[in-house]
Prior knowledge:
The protein is mainly alpha-helical. It has a single domain, classed as Up-down Bundle (Amino acid/polyamine transporter I), CATH 1.20.1740.10. It contains 16 helices and no strands. α6 crosses α7 and α9 packs across α11. It is globular, with a radius of gyration of 21 Å.
Amino acid sequence: MTVRLRQAVGVAFGVTVIVGNTIGAGILRTPGEVAAQLPSGFAFFSVWFLGGLYALLGAICLAELGTLLPASGGQYVYARTALGDYAGFVVGWSDWISTCGTTAAVSIVIGEYSSALIPALEGRVVAISLSVTILFAILQWRGVKWGSRTQEITGFLKMAAFAAVVIACFLWAPERPAGTAVSLPPAAFAALVIALQSVIYTYDGWAAVIYFSEEVRNGAKNIPRALFVGVFSIIAIYIGVNLAIFYVLPISAIAGKNLALASAAQVVFGALGDPMVRALMIISMISGINAYHLMASRVLFAMSRDGLVSRRASVVNEGGTPTVALALSAVVAILFVVSGTFNEVIAVLAFFFVANYTLSFASLFVLRRTMPDTPRPYKVWGYPFTPALALIGSLAFLAGAVVGDTRRSLWALALLAVSYPVYRLLRTTSRSS
């Protein structure tokens, strides 16, 4: 009998898991990086709108896939159904490992920010990181209702906190200092590509609700709703944050800043600005930790249920939590924290995140051909042009990633080369068990 997860979450969870998975430290770091590449207000905001457009095009495509194949597990489900077990394995394995690595990375940042805010915690970054990782795994162990309620509470707190900071910048900012006149650099196209890559990385996470497709009540309607509300919420927050930063500081003062929002907050709130932004990011990242645990466990559960890894990982407790998959995901995150290798792992596997979107968009075309009569509660608007545009954008991004970071791209291709024997071994082991 096929093991299924219980339908226990709704639109509110879908929106907050998207926000929790997407908005993190990137919105602090990326504005300074983009301003350094594109020291023009028009060009700066153009790439943020283009990044939002890419996310929206993707949401339009995945809304059809999420309702056509309402199974938890994320993009792994679509790649396996459309392109076969091995393609599904590559998508699922890279997604699972990178999500566990992200859990470790974010928990470390929580530890660093907490120790900076509270002197008594100084020197205890690793202990804080491990505590946060384990605490949220325990919360989710009790059942999907605990995990989903935690996500909703922390997600709404995150949105409210960002909104409060943005509003405060507009209400209480002093007169803005004059900026230095700047023009686009000679290699404007290269700068645009680099800036757009940074922005798309910052938008990554907008598809989080599809990891829970079989758990969403009335998924035929609520999965598309959650996707679109979530994506528009992220766009609104990102544009709002950048407008607030620009309202307080000229672009010349933003370019190259690691924490542009913190710089703006210091102008508005003085010495309280930096601790306020650090507190905001702790709230933001706590929501992320919860989302990463939820998502990683669903990917491994789905792969186990399909026999691509050990069947033991498809065990589900009475509360609806895939406990073995959750435990393994938490253990991998803990190992990343202790070893300190998560940054390099994430950097190498970042190549796969757009590759996975590329395979999902390609899967849409394949499934339109191979499953023409299967009911589609939601159909892509503007087919075939909309998914074609999303697919072209993904391929262009992959090409830019290879050119811009050849070393790590080669490492990613090497991992892809060795993944097949690993796939065969795990498949054989799964059948034996």
